[in-house]
Structures are given as structure tokens and as C-alpha cells.
Amino acid sequence: MDIGIIHYIFAALVVLSVLGILVTRNLLYAAFLLVLTFLGVAGLFVLAQADFVAVTQLMIYIGGVLILLVFGIMLTNRVAGQPILTQLNRTVLGVLFSVALFASIVYLTQGFQTTEIVAAPHAIQRLGMAILTDYFILFEIVGVLLLVALVGAATIARFKGEGHG
Amino acid sequence: MGNSIYILLSAFVFSAGVALVLTRQNVIAVLIGVELVFNSANINFVYFNALYPERLDGQFFALVVITIAAAETALALAIILKLYRTYHTTNLDEISSLVEE
Amino acid sequence: MTTFLFFLPLILTNAVLGIYAERKISAFIQDRMGPMETGKFGILQTTADIVKLIQKEDIVPAAADWKLFKLAPVIIFTAVFSGFAVIPLSGAWDGAGLEIGVFYLLAIISLDVLGILMAGWGSNSKFSLFGALRSVAQIISYEVPLGLSVLCVVMITQSLDLQEISLSQGLQSPNAVYLFGVVKSMDVSQWGGVFAWNIVQAPLLIPVFVIFFIASLAECNRAPFDLPEAESELIAGYHTEYSGFRWAFFMLAEYGMMMLVSMLAAILFFGAWNTPLPNMGVVKLADWTTGAPGSFMSYIWGVFWLLSKALIGMFMHMWIRWTYPRLRIDQLMNLSWKYLTPASILLLLLCGIWRLWMIA
Predict the structure, then answer these.
(1) Could you write out the three-class secondary structure of chain C?
(2) Which chain B residues touch A86 with a CB distance below 8 Å?
């Protein structure tokens, strides 16, 4: 499979939405543009023969993380009709630093060998087998981590009776 | 041979995430930046895995990263809610007091 | 790959007929006549409504965030419509043919939540915002039992591909089918029909289906889980501020979603596009109502059976809407987290044991 036009479409989607996030100061727009980024990245995952990861990305990022972010935005601001803006800080320095970072990563990865992506048949079946055999310990640890995070988040965010909202 | 589109894109998303973390003052905007950084790592994991189709380490690790990102966001938002209740702001620079007012 | 040519007109006509059917069914349940004036038995009522909707002004509230406001209905409809991409219509006419069909379907439906949040926030109205927050909390909560109940079926059929799940529930099943899954002495692979359906093949799936059905009602925001649109408290929930064609988009999406979950229920539990009539001796009912694989008749029969099953599912949704009162928000959350989720986790375990025990 050569790098077809469809790669560039998804890549353009990611680049444009990320630029949008960088430019906008409106938090909600940033959050909703993040959806486009996640969708574009999921599309690239599919093109890289990782269907399962792509759909997991859709499910967890868009169905979970993003909704949490939007809820967070809505819960930490009073509804007053104005757009919710974020203040900026050290703009020039931050942008310069990240441009330098981008340039250096591109420079350093210049020598990486890139081969063509080949189709991987029965990837889902093999991934399922691998998760429950080779990577079983890691899989279990992630499960425990999720449980701990869930309990922790519930404990931290719990509304205490004597305090105020 | 030039860079693959995946590596370029991953570098771009990573730098953009870092820029967000550096320049924004709102906690949730910073969190969005962190999500972008996670995603750029995932692009690399999946891409390098695709170069070796007989192995699945990259894909599995991408799944782990996604799960950890979900756990991280849930915890971060719990902390943000707590901060908002205590300081009545989500501006990072205003959250500097160590004692409860 | 061409199923969207079928599904796009289907969603449009489904909403029109669905709204008419809903009115007539509600009238029947409440011992009324329902619409009677427009056309014979009021059959043109919805068409008249659509003509009215198209003529209406597309109002954007002055204080609304117009970008989010205008985009929201499109996103909700797109999310529902992309869900149809993986639905197989007959043995030879499958959808996108993804290896991970069901998983994709569940993931893409969650995009719907995003449109609801956009609509709720963009409208800049308290009713919309409350409706959207309730709706999102509800959909996210009920995604857990929904996903787990789908996982039970996936465990029993050993596939995430909707076409493979469909194939395993009919005459073309690659595995031997036993009567009720437990009577090993009776191989009913040649009977086909209702005996090959998942819910008969593995009767353990009956409670799973109950959970799936309750969760799917909640996913569609239908009564008794229609808190987001509770008209007595929130006017119309997240689409309070919408009018004209954008409002019609919400209706299209709502009925499209009902169709989608009903089709999913049919595929996962009730034999997908397979016929319900079994072969009995020389009376080859199943063969007659299936058509030779790949032939023109097999397309017609496949579409016919799948649609009939889905329409029965939609009828059930409407029946329940006009029979049960609305739940309170705490009851709603309790039902999901304290009853359905633990029950579906237990069933998941049992399904795993069933699978191990059934397959030699």
C-alpha cells in the first residue's frame, strides 16, 4: 500500500484541527476541535492496519475523555452567555520552544528507515490472543490501574456535606 | 529518504501539545495539550508497529496508553473540580496559595 | 459496500412512517383515534408536518453560539447514519465488512453524545443545557451495560463481525447447531429458522437481551428514559431552541437511532437476516424463505426479514413509551449502575462458562 491521497486527507484534518486548537482561546471550541484531531488520528490508525486501536481511540477518547473535558469546562464556569476564554501566558516563548522542538524532532528522525505498510490479516484475532497470553500481566495491571483511578477520582471529587459547592 | 507522514504528524502534534501546555493558563486547556501529547505517542506506536506486521507490541502499547490517558483524565478532572471548589478559579497562576482561605 | 444506497432512503421514510405509527399506536393504547383528518386515516399527517417544517424559518437564538448551534444536528445525524455502515442486509450484501463491526458501531454511536452537548451548550438556554447534561450522563451510564451485553453475544458467537454473527444464526452456520445449545443429541443445523437464532441456540442470552433492550431504550432517550426531553420539566430538552429543518434532523436521528438499535438487536439475538421458519422434513420452509445464496431472491428475503424484525423492535419501543411512566433521575442512575451493570458482568462470566462448556 503506497501513501495514498487518503493519508493526506486525514493528516490535513489533524493538522488543521490542531492549528485551530492552538489559535482559539475559546475552551469549548478547543475541546470540539480535539474531536476532529482524534477522528483524523483514528483514520490514520486504520490506514496503518490498526483497526482495533482506531476504534478504541474513538470509543475512549471521544466517548469518554472528551465528554469528561467538556463536562469539566461546563462545571468550572458559570453559565453567563459569554464564551469561555483561557488566558495566555508566555506566548512567544512557548511557541518558539515548541517550534524548536518540532524542528529538532524532524531533524533527528531524518535518518529513520521507512518501509511500506503491508496488510496484516487476522489482526484482531492475533491481538486478542496476544493480550491474554503474552501481555497478560500488563493487561491486568492496566485493569487494576483503572479501578484505582476510578475509586480515586470518586473520592477526590466527592461532595463533602459540611463544605459548600 | 524523507520522513514518513506519520512521524512528521506525530512530531507536529507533540509540539502543539507542548505549546498548549506552555502557553495556556486554564487547567483544562493544559489538559487538552496533554491529550495531544498522548496521541502523538500513539501515532508513533501504531506506525512503528505497522512496519513489523508480524508483531503486535506497538498496537498493544497504544491500547495501554489510551487506557492510561482515560484514567489520567478522570483523575485530573476530579482534581480540577476540587480546585475549583477551593479556589473558585481554574487559572493555574492564581492557584498558588498553600493554605485554605 | 453499497448498503448506504438502501439505508439513506430508509432513514428518511422510517422517520416519516415512524412518527405516524407512533401517533397511531399511542392513540390505540390510550383508546383514542389519533390523526384522522389528513388523508385516509390521517395517513398524510406526517407528510403535511414535513411540508410545514420545511417552510418554517431557521431561527438561531440571538444569544446562541451559532457555530455550535448549527453544527449540532448535523453531527447527531451523521453519528447515527455512520452506525448503519456496518449493518449487513443479506448473506451476500454486507455493509463495510469490518472485522470489528459491533465495536465500531458502539464507538460511533458515542459521537451522538457530542452533538447533544453541542446543541445543549450552543442554544444558551437553561432547558437545553439541563437536557443535554442529563442526556449525556444517561447515555454514558447506559453504554456500560449495553457494551457488556453485546460482549456476551460476541463471546458466544466468537466474532465481532456483524456478518459473521448473522451467518452463524442460519442454515449457512459454519458450526453445528444443537437444540437449545444443550441437547447435544439433536443436531438442528439443517432445521435452520428460529432454532438457529442466538437466543434459541443459547437460551442464556434471554436475560442478556433484556439488559440490552433496556439499555438501548436509554441510548435512544426514549421513554421511560426520556428525562432529557421530559416535556413537563424541560420543554423539549436539548432541542428546545430548534425549529424548522434543524429540528427535523433531530427527529430523523431519533428514529434512525431506534431503527439502528432495533436492527442491532435483531442481528445479535434474533437471527439477523435469517428466516424464522424452520425446515421440517420435506416442508423446506427455511429454504423457501431464504433463497439460494447470492441469488436475487436472497437479497429480497434478507432485507425483508431484517426489516420486519427491526420494525417489531421499534414497535416494542413505542409500546413501552406509551405504557410506562418516566423514571426519576436517581432511579435511572440506580438502575444502570446498581442493577444492570452488575447483572451484565455476572452474565458475561456465565456466557464465558457456557461457551467453554458448549464447545468441545
Answers:
(1) CCCHHHHHHHHHHHHHHHHHHHHHHHHHHCCCCCCCCCCHHHCCHHHHHHHHHHHCCCCCCCCCCHHHHHHHHHHHHHHHHHHHHHCCCCCCCCCCCCCCHHHHHHHHHCHHHHHHHHHHHHCCCHHHHHHHHHHHHHHHHHHHHHHHHHHHHHHHHCCCCHHHHHHCCCCCCCCCCEECCCEEEEECCCCCHHHHCHHHHCCCHHHHHHHHHHHHHHHCCCCCCCHHHCHHHHCCHHHCCCCHHHHHHHHHHHHHHHHHHHHHHHHHHCCCCCCCCCEECCEEHHHHCCCCCCCHHHHHHHHHHHHHHHHHHHHHHHHHHCCCCCCCHHHHHHHHHHHHHHHHHHHHHHHHHHHHHHCC
(2) 24-26, 28-29
Nearest to C209 by CA among C265, C257, C168: C265
Which chains share 3+ C-beta pairs under 8 angstroms with B? Answer: A
Q: Distance from A92 to chain C by nearest Cα, in Å?
A: 29
The CA distance from A62 to the nearest CA of chain B, in Å, is 10
Beta bridge partners of C291: none
User: Is A70 in Cβ contact with C107 (below 8 Å)?
Assistant: no
CB of C347 within 8 A of CB of C204? yes
Distance separating alpha carbons of residues C158 and A88, to the nearest angstrom = 52
For domain B5-94, give the fold.
Helix Hairpins (1.10.287)
The full set of domain ranges for chain B reads 5-94
Whether ipTM exceeds 0.95: no
- Whether residue A114 is contained in a domain is answered as yes
Q: Is the pLDDT of residue B62 over 60?
A: yes
Could you tell me the CA-to-CA distances from C255 to A85, C12, C14, C283, C352 in Å, in that order?
37, 9, 7, 38, 34
CATH number at A39 reads 1.20.120.1200
Read off the pTM: 0.86
- What is the length of chain B? 101
pLDDT digits (tens, 9 = 90+) for A48-94: 888 888 888 888 888 888 888 888 888 777 656 666 777 777 888 88
Would you state the torsion angle of the CA atoms of residues C282, C287, C293, C294, taken in this order, to the nearest 10 degrees?
A: 120
Q: For residue A164, what pLDDT band results from cuts at 50, 70 and 90? A: very low
Domain count across chain A: 1
Distance CA B19, CA A132 (A): 38
- A17 touches B: beta carbon within 8 Å: no
The boundaries of the domain holding residue A85 are 5-157
A104/A15 Cα distance (integer angstroms): 18
**What radius of gyration, in Å, describes the C-alpha atoms of chain A?**
20
